[in-house]
Amino acid sequence: MAGIDVGGTRVKSVLADSQGSVLLSHTASTPERPGEAVVDLVVATVADLLERASAEGVEGRLGAVGVVVPGLVDESTGSAAWSANLGWRDLPLRQRLRDRLDVPVAVGHDVRAGLLAEFHLGAAQGVPDALFVPLGTGIASALLAGGRVVAGSEWTGEIGHVVVEPDGPVCGCGRHGCLEAVASAASLGRAWRGLGRDGDAETLSRAVVDGDPDAVRLWHGAVDALVRVIAPVCAAAGTRVLLVGGGLAESGAVLLDPLRERLVHSLGHDRVTVTRAALGDRAGALGATLLAMEATA
Amino acid sequence: MAGIDVGGTRVKSVLADSQGSVLLSHTASTPERPGEAVVDLVVATVADLLERASAEGVEGRLGAVGVVVPGLVDESTGSAAWSANLGWRDLPLRQRLRDRLDVPVAVGHDVRAGLLAEFHLGAAQGVPDALFVPLGTGIASALLAGGRVVAGSEWTGEIGHVVVEPDGPVCGCGRHGCLEAVASAASLGRAWRGLGRDGDAETLSRAVVDGDPDAVRLWHGAVDALVRVIAPVCAAAGTRVLLVGGGLAESGAVLLDPLRERLVHSLGHDRVTVTRAALGDRAGALGATLLAMEATA
Fold this sequence. Notes:
2 copies of one chain form a homodimer.
Chain A: E1 2-6, E2 10-16, E3 22-29, H1 38-55, E4 65-69, E5 72-74, E6 79-83, E7 88-91, H2 93-100, E8 105-109, H3 110-121, E9 130-134, E10 142-145, E11 148-149, H4 179-183, H5 185-194, H6 201-209, H7 213-237, E12 241-245, H8 253-267, E13 273-276, H9 283-296
Parallel strand pairs in A: 1-4, 4-8, 9-12, 12-13
Antiparallel strand pairs in A: 1-2, 2-3, 5-6, 6-7, 9-10, 10-11
Helix pairs in contact in A: 3-9, 5-6, 6-7, 7-8
């Protein structure tokens, strides 16, 4: 069982046995904007995993392959509909991979697969109603409702491009004030340097701990923006736990404490837990192996 | 099969055959704050329905009863957890009704049941990913994801109490700037009269059509507030259709057109339809009959 997470900068892959236990894992760089060559990339990654397994004497039977990608994904057709960073549009990824690999193939969305992994193996175990928000270069979300990962239209989870400040900073998408342009790790780092300071979002988070007023203002602005988007989702779905992931979650309590405080205020009740996602940057690849297992079931 | 919707001012009930076709329906006033006496009220409503059926020569076999109520509801236990208007707290409604009625009983939430009815019989037919937002005295929501009505914690759907304007008008819940305090039919009527004008939200909507500047400003403020809460939910869940219900939806295009325009802007894509809910104030009772049918399945 192979699980492969094709990210904007890295390809993370794991080989697991039929019970889902990880036998080996590997990380490689993603070629710049692979576009449709992502098919070759996945085929080569699978071959590489099997070769490593053989070299290490690991039982490496390939029962199925799960592949997860960012952007717009239609799980029902296995189509990678759009990714700006990776350079594809309407790519029938599942079909192309089935033509090349002699095993069942599942194609999923990186964040939704990550939430599936958090539900089965990580911080949402036993909690059927959860919201997963990774805060990294960009921002997306995945929603678990009644133990099922929600996947409506191919735009599902694109909370990073909800406008939170109509007069806010320009987003990569060309509009102003998207959540991602205000509260992602990348945009916080940019805003911090825009104040003439050195470093990135991590530097900023340490300055917040030290009580630097510029840092505190910037940070709380980001927390407010996150809550403006997260609170309505939690209210509508009856979310019991908010899992924060991505690079920004590594700042820990300096992020999670004010996030919970403002979320509770905005919701008007305290029946929501805010916690760090448990599986880190392996969540997507682990979720991909779960999709592979489902594909053989 | 009886479906009963116990609202803040009216009790709507329908008797349906085993295929769900409505045989007769009735509306009565809700006694003020019935509290636990809602059990007697439901039992009397069922008896009254059967009596009417008999008098009108309708085949009125009572296979099961579905009851829906507002506020906080836990469908898994059939408990009516809290309603400020109706005056109960932690009422084991399903159990109490089972003790009194000799048929299966289902207890649900009025808005979630209304969405179930819209999905099976109304404006969301064939659309498995929908958001239903009735705008009346208060505001709540129900979310359909993958053809299933989402019910997480008992606070599910309480979008009316998400804070949208921290310095906004006082809400019935005591806090400032809840969505319900800015954009419900009741609060819009109050704000309109607060400007020294006569009438209610319906009068206001006509003044918007006439281009009255005060009316337009108030109306668009409400639309903006609605979009601030609705857009994140649609983004997270991949919602394909937004169903607007309640009294305010009767204003039609003057509400739905700007709502869609601003929603599309906030989401950054136009893959969402905004439409009026189809079943009006019968949605809850019709949904209750669907819950009753499920209870016998």
